[in-house]
Design goal:
- The protein has 311 residues and is of the alpha+beta class.
- The chain has helices at 74-90, 112-119, 143-154, 166-181, 189-198, 238-241, 243-255, 277-284; strands spanning 6-9, 15-19, 30-31, 34-38, 41-46, 48-51, 54-57, 67-68, 95-99, 123-134, 158-162, 203-210, 213-222, 226-234, 261-266, 268-269, 274-275, 289-299.
- The chain is built from eight helices and 18 strands.
- The strands form three sheets. An eleven-stranded mixed β-sheet has the order 3-6-7-9-18-10-15-14-13-12-11, with helices on both faces. Strands 1-2-4-5-8 form a five-stranded antiparallel β-sheet, with helices on one face.
- β13 and β14 form a beta hairpin.
- The relative contact order is 0.16.
């Protein structure tokens, strides 16, 4: 982290913040991340990048929003957000594009930002649909997923947790994304390996093998309350083998059964306006239900509206 770029102090001299501290994705994004302090203690974090004179909740990260300490009150959250907007205004940046943190990733209610976006007349620009399982109240698994699991057992498939990503990236994931979506993984093999080194217990790789050959896998981001499948992919025989059904029932029943939630991620395409029906149906077969993640555009010139909230 680069904390040497001091930016500003609030009028009451109790708030200050630093800019540009994220080294991750530095080669692909022009960082504009902020960390905010109150009386020398960090109280809020805003991962962000700048592109074409617009600031975004970091486009290289899955989730966004402003992360705040658990004791921060609404007035302080409003002050932090106004400082961010004032900084953008001072640097002649007209728009802030912010994505919300999905509610399941916070142990406490965190709709302060949602309220502030309302007061700022923020424009909803995108809404993604995430498939989530409440692990404490799991619905029944569908007959299709059970049938897939039985096929996998019949084919003698095996799930292994591994510490390297090379086989999954090079033999399964990259080629599938290229063929189906003409796309690449958000994380390169080098980046995901670096993340694993930095967070060895939080980035986990589970592969499925048939006769010692990899046939499917998923990369899990393991947080305190949520296990999130960041990447899910199988070879061309995945439906015949039932490999992905087998893998995820193993994860749900054996590995992450004590989590609060399991997050399959989005099935959206076209900037959230469409849903891959087959993929979404597959996730719902495990008992997943839908929550949303919203994206907003804020006119920085509307920042004075935050001055009129408290009466």
């Amino acid at each position: 982290m680069l904390w040497d770029n001091f930016v500003s102090e609030a009028k009451n001299a109790t708030f200050l913040f630093y800019r540009d501290f994220m080294e991750y994705h530095h080669d692909r994004f022009d960082d504009y991340s902020l960390i905010l302090f109150k009386k020398d203690k960090p109280i809020a974090l805003f991962p962000a990048n700048i592109h074409e004179n617009k600031v975004y909740s970091h486009q290289g990260l899955t989730y966004g929003g402003i992360l705040v300490t658990e004791n921060l009150k609404l007035r302080d959250v409003a002050t932090c957000f106004q400082m961010i907007l004032d900084d953008l205004k001072e640097n002649n940046i007209q728009q802030l594009h912010i994505k919300q943190l999905p509610t399941i990733y916070s142990p406490l209610p965190t709709d302060e930002l949602q309220y502030l976006l309302f007061t700022l007349e923020a424009k909803l620009t995108r809404r993604d649909a995430l498939s989530i399982i409440n692990m404490q109240q799991r619905p029944k698994v569908s007959k299709d997923r059970i049938a897939g699991n039985k096929r996998a057992i019949k084919h003698n498939l095996v799930v292994k947790e591994v510490h390297e990503f090379d086989d999954f990236w090079n033999q399964i994931l990259i080629s599938n994304l290229q063929k189906k979506h003409d796309a690449k993984p958000v994380h390169s093999l080098e980046e995901i390996t670096k993340l694993k080194m930095s967070f060895p217990d939080k980035i986990r790789q589970f592969n499925v093998y048939k006769d010692e050959k990899i046939v499917a896998g998923t990369t899990i981001f393991d947080t305190k309350y949520v296990a999130h499948s960041q990447y899910i992919s199988g070879n061309e025989d995945k439906n015949t083998l039932g490999s992905l059904d087998f893998l995820h029932l193993y994860l749900l029943n054996e590995v992450f059964q004590d989590k609060m939630y399991f997050d399959f991620g989005i099935s959206n395409e076209n900037q959230g306006k469409n849903i891959n029906e087959g993929l979404h149906y597959w996730k719902e077969g495990f008992g997943a239900r839908t929550i949303t993640q919203d994206f907003y555009e804020i006119d920085v010139q509307n920042s004075p509206k935050l001055d009129t909230i408290f009466i």
